[in-house]
Amino acid sequence: MPLIVFAGAHLGYDLSELPLGGGAQVGRHLVEHWAESGRGELIVLGSGSGSGWSLPHTRYHNVTGENQRITDLTVRGYARFSRAFERGVTDYLRDALGAWDPREVVVLHNDICEAGDFRAIRAMGYRQATILHVDVVDYVANAYLGGRVSARTLARVAGGLERLRLMRLAPEVLQLIFEKQAACARHSDLLVVPSRGMAQVLRAAYPWRSEADVAVVPWGSLTSHVGSTDPMKVDELRQRYGIPESGTVLITLSRISPEKGHDLLLRGLRLWERRPSATEELWVFICGEAAYIHGASFAARVRRLASRLRRVGVVFPGYITGTEKAAHLALADLYVFPSRHESYGLTLVEAMAHGLPVLTTPHRSAAELVRPEFGRIVPASPVGLRDGLQELLKERAALPAMGGAAASFACGLSFSQAADALAVQLEKLVAS
After folding, report:
1. CATH fold of 3-220+415-431, please?
2. Taking burial as the number of CB atoms within 10 A of a residue's CB, which of 69, 288, 294, 301 is the most buried?
3. Residue 283 pairs with which residues in a beta bridge?
4. Angle at the Cα of 87 (from 117 to 51), degrees rounded to 5?
5. How far apart are CA 21 and CA 83, in angstroms?
6. pTM for this model (two decimals)
């Protein structure tokens, strides 16, 4: 195994305390798996304190020189932080690896905005691979432009502005998004994405990359073992929120952010309430904290929408982990994943592994993860979500069997196999 230098601004943090999202979770699990499997030396470059990151064959370095809550950053602060991390990673590779032949090292970036300088690192002779947890150009096209412009068109427009030296007039965060993703696509030897749908969009936006340059590595479930949940914890939740045994519980697990579609779900539930036959006792748990940057204003909007519901109970438990998360999943009857844009769906697979049927929208990995025997894919709209709920709740007695089918399917989605497959791809980069 070559030396892997794993760079990710979200690495080095205690994820049981700080809600940093799926990319940070995948990064942490990759480090743990590779360290425990003894695949070789691993250097991790992050921005957290590194507390709890003492693992076999692994060295951790904070390359920003600061310990801050990156969840508190503003838009401008995030852009500046990302540039500082970029400099820190690039300087480390230039100054601290003198004993290593660059041809024996793979630099693995855990996402693109919080990464090193792709062009400069390639010039040093290092092979590079980049995990794209989010195609940020596709994200902007769908989450902010409503899909009216494709990622391919947006990438071409951005490339034209950059060639005309007009991109520098754009806000700093947009410069970061478009320049970094284009540089990543140009200078990475391997692009790693979690779904075939994402790979197709990426290759369309950057047509010079061949199919062999893009590795599809579905992460599977980060929950290595789903054991039995303490029934007393589930009963405590029922008592705390006044939910009878006959009540139906929906649950979502994600940061509270516009692309996650909580507003679509709540507006769909408002339509559901208006049916004359809406007599079911229904609760929805919206688990997670507001995303940083624009999350607070969207979370306030979500709470306003929730306050308008009259016959659906809405609960905001906040950021939950460990046994608390397991108890909430055991309480639920149906997992709802109403995203406007999603590259994979870690929490979707986690909920399936816990035995929950799912209702989701046609995001990039939906067709790969959801089957009719345990879920439904509906349009990302209030009407689509209402109709999906009506269909599934009409046969509420069938939900447990659907959940069993979901768990069986999720058992075949192994994170350890995904991590091993990625390691093989990295080994090939050095051998080539």
Report:
1. Rossmann fold (3.40.50)
2. 288
3. 249, 313
4. 110
5. 20
6. 0.91
